[in-house]
């Protein structure tokens, strides 16, 4: 089935998957995860109610009980998985994808993700086998109280906001279910009503075009910081007081400053696209930086393995070992960053000053190429640059090829039909030179 991806089940609703597929997933899931009950939440997408109904019908027809959380952010469902000691949970969401998409994020004990290698392949096989209904249908229990428990938990991380001036874009998604109960009343909000048609912009703040309004709002309000959440609030991006988008891997460095001030050092997990600026900044704070694959399913397993304090990805996911069950939470990440910004303001400094002190190199950000012959293009790049005596080649998610004064990562997207490039060099001139070289090679495979 086209909707089964590396990290979750996701696709265009009624094209890549439908109610019958979701029902079968619900019927098979309790057996796969040996779960006596399944916690279920959903986002605000227009198709989420019918998916919710089909999923619950499948789960209860298996004889299993459903704890129905109702409307939820994805991290709220992770929290529920731990809070309820569930062996299975499902969040109905397509996260940051356009409105016609939807999906299922499945977790098991301790909010461990169920990905391609940890259950999704087996689940797909089970869907295509002869599944049997139970003699006694399971019941549905109201678990909407999870929202209050989650808010109570997050409030323990809320800083003294003081006179901090904050602008927030909720992207018409799920974050407004939570943040208004945690952030100070003085916050200025845009797009803070639920609307699964996402009328103002797609719920993907990684694309800077979707951040234009919060940039303007931050400057107009003379805010110290702008915050924008994605559709299901597992990701968050930031705007400085000058209206500049802060590349998410630099936010990982800011989180390092938060934990450093708490007296914590140790391992930090970053993905293969992460800037040397961030890596060097974290190392200067005493952290050991570990580079790993892109994707929440990989990150959540690795952060446990290396016992990392926290982790961050270029996509705006931030993972917390001790503070959030090895999972990502956009709202928790925003509270920690706001704590740093509040401290900066008290000391007469600004967010832009901190960001400028972190950045040492010229970086392209993530550049996308839509092409069919992705493997051929990657192979060609590897052949060319392997001959130039790189310092090292990391090969566990595409390739990160490092030279003394520059490096690049080339990889296939796990969720979209793109080849993705990130390139960084000691200055803009060198960055543009190598970017042009690489783009010429890639264009031969368009």
TrEMBL record:
Which Pfam families does the protein's record reference? PGM_PMM_I, PGM_PMM_II, PGM_PMM_III, PGM_PMM_IV
- One BP annotation, GO: carbohydrate metabolic process
Q: Does the keyword Kinase apply?
A: no
Origin: domain of life = Bacteria
Cofactor(s) needed: Mg(2+)
List the InterPro entries: A-D-PHexomutase_a/b/a-I, A-D-PHexomutase_a/b/a-I/II/III, A-D-PHexomutase_a/b/a-II, A-D-PHexomutase_a/b/a-III, A-D-PHexomutase_C, A-D-PHexomutase_C_sf, A-D-PHexomutase_CS, Alpha-D-phosphohexomutase_SF
Which residues belong to any copy of the Alpha-D-phosphohexomutase C-terminal domain?
366-440
Which molecular function term from Gene Ontology is one that the record holds? intramolecular phosphotransferase activity
Listed A to Z, the keywords are: Isomerase, Magnesium, Metal-binding, Phosphoprotein
Q: What is this protein called?
A: Phosphomannomutase/phosphoglucomutase
């Amino acid at each position: 089935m086209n909707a089964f991806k590396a990290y979750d089940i996701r696709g265009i609703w009624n094209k890549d998957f439908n109610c019958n597929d979701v029902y079968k997933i619900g019927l098979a899931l309790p057996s796969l995860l040996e779960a006596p009950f399944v916690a279920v939440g959903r986002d605000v997408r227009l198709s989420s109610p019918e998916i919710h109904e089909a999923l619950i019908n499948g789960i209860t027809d298996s004889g299993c009980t459903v704890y129905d959380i109702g409307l939820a952010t994805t991290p709220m469902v992770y929290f529920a998985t731990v809070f309820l000691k569930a062996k299975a949970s499902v969040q109905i969401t397509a996260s940051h994808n356009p409105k016609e998409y939807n999906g299922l994020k499945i977790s098991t004990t301790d909010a461990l993700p169920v990905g391609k290698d940890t259950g999704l392949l087996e689940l797909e096989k089970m869907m295509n086998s002869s599944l049997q209904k139970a003699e006694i249908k399971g019941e549905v229990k109201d678990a909407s109280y999870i929202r209050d428990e989650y808010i109570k938990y997050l409030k323990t991380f809320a800083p003294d906001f003081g006179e901090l001036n904050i602008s927030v874009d909720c992207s018409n998604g799920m974050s407004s279910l939570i943040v208004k109960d945690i952030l100070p009343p003085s916050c200025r909000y845009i797009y803070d009503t639920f609307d699964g048609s996402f009328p103002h912009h797609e719920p993907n703040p990684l694309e800077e075009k979707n951040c234009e309004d919060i940039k303007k709002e931050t400057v107009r309000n003379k805010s110290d910081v702008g915050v924008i959440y994605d559709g299901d609030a597992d990701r968050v991006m930031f705007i400085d007081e000058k209206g500049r988008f802060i590349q998410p891997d630099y936010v990982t460095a800011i989180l390092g400053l938060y934990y450093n001030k708490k007296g914590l050092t140790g391992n930090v997990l970053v993905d293969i696209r992460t800037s040397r600026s961030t890596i060097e900044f974290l190392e200067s704070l005493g952290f050991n930086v570990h580079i790993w694959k892109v994707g929440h399913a990989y990150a959540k397993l690795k952060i446990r393995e290396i016992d990392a304090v926290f982790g961050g990805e270029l996509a705006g996911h931030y993972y917390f070992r001790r503070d959030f069950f090895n999972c990502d939470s956009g709202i928790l990440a925003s509270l920690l960053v706001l704590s740093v910004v509040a401290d900066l303001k008290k000391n007469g400094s600004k967010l832009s000053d901190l960001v400028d002190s972190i950045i040492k190199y010229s970086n392209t950000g993530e550049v996308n190429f839509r092409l069919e012959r992705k493997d051929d293009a990657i192979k060609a790049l590897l052949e060319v640059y392997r001959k130039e005596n790189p310092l090292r080649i990391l090969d566990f998610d595409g390739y990160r090829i490092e030279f003394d004064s520059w490096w690049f990562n080339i990889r296939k997207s796990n969720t979209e039909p793109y080849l993705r490039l990130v390139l960084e060099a000691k200055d803009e001139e060198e960055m543009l030179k190598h970017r042009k070289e690489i783009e010429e090679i890639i264009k031969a495979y368009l």
